[in-house]
Structures are given as C-alpha cells and as structure tokens.
Design brief:
alpha/beta; six-stranded antiparallel β-sheet; 322 residues; 34% helix; single chain; six-stranded parallel β-sheet
Length: 322
C-alpha cells in the first residue's frame, strides 16, 4: 500500500517536468500569435473591446515598424546590462595605470547607450580560462553618466592568483567579454546619511569611488565623505592624483587618509595596518542614523575592520561590506 501511494504521489522532479511542459505549450501558442490571428478572433468575438485589439496589434507590430524605420537595423537597447543574461562587450582600450594595474575600457552597443548600473552595485564577468568557466565581480569606476562605455580598474596579479585579471590583460583590443549585472544590495540615495565613512584596501577603492563621486557631483547632496585608503606601498595607491584633486576641491566634505604597510622614509600618513586608533581619529565614533561605514578590501582586512568598528561602538547595521 505504501508503495502504491508513493507511486501515485507527484515528486518534485515530476512537478518541474509538468511546469516545463505547460511553459512549452504556452510558448507554442504565443508563437502563433499574429496580426491575422487577432483579426480572426475579433470577427468571431465582436464584443471584444477595440482598445484591446489596438494594444495587441501595437505589441506585435512595433518591433517590425521600428526595424523598417531604421533601415533594417536591429533596435538598440537604451541600457546595456541585463541582470539575468550575459551580454558581450568589446575591449576598446587598455590604459596602463602602474606596473600591475590597468583601466580596461569596454564599448557599449552605441555611443548614447547607458551601462545601467546603479551607484554602488557591481557587475559579473565570465570567461573560459584554461578550459574552466571563471566568473569575477567588478565595480566600474565609470558612472551611468558616461555614455557608450564602461571602465574597469583592475590590478593584475601573478600566478597562482588573478586568473581573471591575467586573462583580461591578455586580451587584444577588439576582443569581447561576457558581462551580466547589476548585482549587489547597496542602496544609494542622496543624503542617505550625514556622513559616509569608507575604509578601502587596494582595488576595494572602486565601489567607494562610485559612491563618493555620485555624492560630490550632486548639488542636492550634502553628505560628508571620510576615506581611509590602505595599500602596501606608495606606488600601489590607485588613482592617487585624482583622489588628491578631489580632496583639494572639496576640503570640507572629502577627508582622505592614506595608510601604507611599507612606507618610504619621508612618509607622513598612516603606517602598518589600519588600526582602531586610526579609525577613531579619521572616522570617529558612531552617530546613529547620521553615519554609516562602508568596507571593501581583502577578506582578512574587512574582518579586522569590522572587529575594530564593533569595539568602537558601531553596530553591524551601521556597517556595510561590499
């Protein structure tokens, strides 16, 4: 009896198959929809509202009309990214920032197209490297106001690390990569906090770059930015000239403190690892609903920073890790 009952019952696998069959039946019916089928339906059902018929015709005909109007060219999307489907973009330029860091510029489908990436979100890049499917998340340093392209600031690591970074560095201009997005949970809004504090290590600067540039170029946003930026050597400080320019242009709203593990003899910034004392001095103590701390960097670093922040009094709700 138990065996019979089990046989009659619907398993999860059978349910999924039935859903698949239903989806295919619906798709098959949808493929048959055309202007002619709509007209035949109207003849058989004269009571159907004219507005519904007009809407159906518009849905069916709009892509055809647009394609004809554009001389047979495919209609370009206003936004380049898709959160589900990977799309291909060509490398249009490779700019050397330092001995091991590059800005990779990828062209969108047309010069007026937006990437479609909200502030503080990231995208995912997929490639087959050495016969294996490799995926990595990256945050562009360009913004949605930059039309027709997006820029990735990437440090190229030696083997055995940096599989994707070395693959990107090996690409010739004109080569394509697969990109999907946006991803991430950070929700940026102008004046979301009185002060946004940031602790970044190495290329962990990129999401911070997106956020503070969005803040500073918005006349309605009065948010203050406090950034602690940690690196190994002075040569490793990414976009230093531009960071210093932003600080000089916004001295009261953008504070900047560099920390180096291996500083030169004449270094005046922080030395060693970012400490609790450095955070107290350059980030300050918590201010509920007025201050948030953003973290991005190597896992060991961000774990240590969270511990320091918790000791100072910041709750996990006041800390966001990219």
């Amino acid at each position: 009896k138990r065996r019979k009952k089990k046989k009659k019952g619907t398993t999860g696998e059978e349910a999924r198959r039935e859903e698949g069959r239903k989806a295919r039946r619906v798709a098959a019916r949808m493929e048959k929809v055309s202007v002619r089928s709509v007209v035949e339906y109207v003849k058989a059902n004269p009571s159907v509202a004219v507005g519904i018929v007009v809407t159906a015709v518009i849905i069916v005909m709009t892509p055809v009309v647009l394609q004809f109007a554009l001389g047979g060219k495919r209609v370009a999307r206003a936004v380049a990214l898709d959160a589900i489907e990977f799309r291909r973009f060509k490398l249009s330029d490779k700019i050397e920032v330092s001995h091991n860091t590059r800005i990779f510029r990828f062209a969108l489908e047309h010069p007026e197209q937006r990437l479609g990436l909200p502030v503080g979100r990231h995208l995912s890049i997929k490639a087959v490297v050495g016969g294996k499917d490799v995926r990595r998340p990256y945050t562009p340093i360009s913004s949605d106001d930059d039309l027709g392209y997006f820029d990735l600031l990437i440090k190229v690591y030696p083997e055995p690390h940096g599989t994707m970074s070395r693959h990107l560095d090996s690409l010739a201009v004109g080569s394509a990569i697969d990109v999907r997005g946006p991803s991430g949970t950070f929700q940026y809004e102008p004046n979301m906090r009185k002060t946004l504090c940031m602790i970044a290590g190495g290329t962990g600067l990129t999401p911070m770059w997106q956020v503070f540039n969005a803040v500073l170029k918005d006349p309605s946003d009065s948010t203050e930015i406090r950034l602690i930026f940690a690196n190994v050597t002075e040569e490793d400080i990414l976009l230093r000239e531009r960071l210093d320019e932003i600080h000089r242009a916004n001295p009261s709203r953008f504070s900047l403190f560099y920390v180096l593990n291996e500083p030169p003899s004449d270094w005046s910034g922080g030395v060693g690892f970012v400490s609790e004392d450095m955070i107290r001095e350059h980030i300050g103590t918590p201010a509920p609903d007025e201050k948030m701390v953003l973290l991005c960097g190597p896992p060991l670093m961000t774990a240590a920073m969270r511990k320091h922040l918790n000791t100072i009094g910041y709750s996990d709700a006041e800390i966001f890790k990219f």
